[in-house]
Write a structure and sequence with these properties.
Elements (H helix, E strand, L loop, with lengths): L11 H7 L35 E5 L4 E7 L2 E6 L3 E6 L6 E7 L5 E6 L5 E6 L2 E6 H6 L5 E6 L11 E6 L5 E6 L4 E6 H6 L7 E6 L2 E8 L5 E8 L8 E6 H6 L5 E6 L4 E6 L5 E6 L4 E6 H6 L5 E6 L4 E7 L4 E6 L11 E6 H5 L5 E6 L4 E7 L4 E6 L4 E6 L5
Antiparallel strand pairs: 1-28, 2-3, 3-4, 4-5, 6-7, 7-8, 8-9, 10-11, 11-12, 12-13, 14-15, 15-16, 16-17, 18-19, 19-20, 20-21, 22-23, 23-24, 24-25, 26-27, 27-28
Length: 395
Amino acid sequence: MGSGREVVAGLAGVAAVVSGCAVCLPLAVAARPTTPRVCSPALPSQRPLTTVATTMVPLSGNPFGVVSTKGWSFVSTLSGQVAVLDDRGSRPRVTRELTVAGDTLAGDALTNDGRYLLVADGSGAVVLDVDRVEHGVPHAVLGKLAATELTSLALDSAIEVIVSPDDRFAFVSLESANEIAVFNLDHALATGFRRSTLVGTIPLGLAVVGMAISPDGRWLYATSEARSATSRQGTISVMNLKLAETRPRHSLVESAAAGCDPVRVAVSPHGNVVWVAARESNALLAFSARRLRTDPQHALLARVRVGAAPVGLALLHNGTRIVVADSNRFAAPGQTAALTVIDTDAALAHKAAVIGEIPAGTFPRELASDATRHQLLVTNFGSDQLEVVNLRRLP
């Protein structure tokens, strides 16, 4: 269960809810939405995309999150390091590994101005100076956003971090605490992290994991792997971003059922479609962004059956393609990990949408696109690799 630190130590209570999911989505390739019924592990056979070239860059320590900017990539690892890769050659090259003492790191994000790297950790996020990280300058770690005043469940449950469009606020999903922590990043930087800058929290369902912000900066989306201790179905929630920054507990707009163990979310470039990876449903779900706010029971637009235990998502080619990291993290018999490529227009039209699959290492987890270099970066958590996918020949 979960998509973060439960690799090491599980959330037993939530796992008991989700395992053997009994009230989740049926699966069909780009099927028309119907009433959610049961969770199905059935998997399709996909066409291998043999023309798409990949390169594996060895790493260590269970690579988790990855971001890319201006010729550099940063990979956070569960062992507490940030690998710094120079992307300006023929393939990414590890130049250094920065150890964040005493920490295990999860997802990461860059501020929109490219100045700061945030890595989810503990009950918040570590903040690093990007220029210092790139050039090996000492004291790259500027400080830490920490929700130490929260319940002990929050202390080691940070999974993802994202930043508001104006870079003033940071949002951290706290899986074990079942909420999102909201921090005033602007104040933290201005005061040298000398005091808590926790604005508050947004309580959601069990095991809050994935987050995304709409392109217009108005809405915050988040997944919860289970609705409650008595429900075996997860949710996708939408929040008013401005209220989340000022009155977090009053920011929730609506939530919709999103299959078994929804773990990641991505928003189309125009903001009208919200995509969710439903891990235990082996499915990619598409929701109407408008209906998520106004009519959540009828927000589901389409579902596409993908590979085993999908986790990471990346929208490519102006949103006409989406790549899903089929993690196979539970080692389903006869199944392998892969990257499934989907035609989003076909999916929304309820047509056959899966274009094919690209091989991956063990447990592909997070994805980051580098449009300037036509690359997709994938963290293979189980095989300690950064996979570089050449997108120039992606169908």
